[in-house]
Amino acid sequence: MNLVRSLIAVIGGVALVSLVVEPLEFTLVNAVADASIEDMAGYFAVRNRPGILAAKLVYNSLAAVLGGYMAAKIAGTREMAHASAAALLQTAALIWGFTLSEYAPFTPAWTRVALVVLTGPAMLAGGMIRAKAASGASTGGTS
Fold first, then answer.
1. For residues 67 and 139, what is the distance between their CA atoms, to the nearest angstrom?
2. Position 73 in a domain
3. Helix (H, G, I), strand (E, B) or coil at 76
4. With a threshold of 0.85, does the pTM exceed it?
5. What is the C-alpha to C-alpha distance for residues 129 and 143, in angstroms, rounded to an integer?
6. CA angle 94, 78, 68 (to 5 degrees)
7. Which domain range does residue 101 map to?
8. Given pLDDT bands bounded at 50, 70 and 90, which one contains residue 134?
9. What is the mean pLDDT of residues 100-120?
10. 143: in domain
11. What is the pLDDT of residue 98?
12. CB atoms < 10 A from the CB of 115, how many?
């Protein structure tokens, strides 16, 4: 396995999660805001509404499935190992962000816990989907 390709697969899978989640969250928060958002306090006041937080759990999980899938697809071999590495890296980044980041206190504790618990398994699910597709393709199935 090419080390460079492995690194690109893992880092790319993690980056893809952020590239999907962050613009989606920003757009959603601005769409439901009652007025123009002037500062981070205003942003988090809107983002922390129960409906937005519920949506956040859903779109973060879906983005994690996509990130795990892409990590496995880019890797080309040992799909689950790469998806697992991406899931571990993403989980570590979430734990760091939700404990040491200056913005950690602005996210409710239950949301932080739920995101840490859901994201890794969702990335593994994406890797598993890709691994099964690759396995089917190698045995003559469709991918």
1. 25
2. yes
3. coil
4. yes
5. 10
6. 30
7. 3-138
8. confident
9. 93
10. no
11. 92
12. 25
Dump pLDDT digits (tens) for 31-79.
999 888 989 989 999 999 999 999 999 999 999 999 999 999 999 999 9
> pLDDT grade, residue 143 (50/70/90)?
very low
Burial 79-95 (b: 16+ CB within 10 A, else e): bbbbbbbbbebbbeebe
Q: What is the mean pLDDT of residues 114-142?
A: 88
Cα 124 from Cα 13, distance rounded (Å) = 11
- The answer to whether 109 and 37 have CB atoms below 8 angstroms apart is no
* Contact present, 137 and 97 (Cβ < 8 Å): no
Closest CA to 85 of 20, 13, 25: 13
Residue 80 falls within a domain, yes or no?
yes
Which residues, 6 or more positions from 86, have their beta carbon under 8 angstroms from its beta carbon?
9, 10, 13, 14, 67, 68, 71, 123, 127
Return all residues near 17 (Cβ < 8 A) that are at least 6 apart.
Answer: 60, 63, 64, 66, 67, 90, 119, 123
DSSP 7-54: HHHHHHHHHHHHHHHHHHHHHHHHHH-SS---SHHHHHHHHTSHHHHH
Domains in the chain, number: 1
The answer to whether position 14 is within a domain reads yes
